[in-house]
Amino acid sequence: MKKVTLFFIIFLFSLLSLVSAEEKVMTNLKFSEFVIATGVEDRAPQNTADIFSSSHDKLYAFCRVSNAQENTTILHQWYYGNKLMASVPLLIKSASWRTYSSKKISPAWVGEWRVDITTEDGLLLESLTFYIEK
Fold this sequence. Notes:
It is a single chain. By secondary structure, this protein is of the alpha+beta class. The protein is 19% helix and 56% strand.
């Protein structure tokens, strides 16, 4: 009985070590820039702000990532209030990488929005709130 218990303790410890290692890799990611913009040109965000007019039909969440492992996937999770409106997977292909996602916005969707950057497993890495006004 003691051998079985010891085996399970070692197994659980190993499993927790693997999860901790993956979280450590993901939490080592640095976001030197994370903004909402009305466009992206030449790999740079255009017209960044915290408040946007409802006349904009599309917005962009742009982030500059550093300290990444190659072929790491992050998600941009777009929320209107507390409702998830879009989940966009983005592949990070080098230690320093710029990427973005976009979301079409209905003129009726005024109010608070946010974009969360998460791992595929749901670990929150960054969050940014913005507003859409009439």
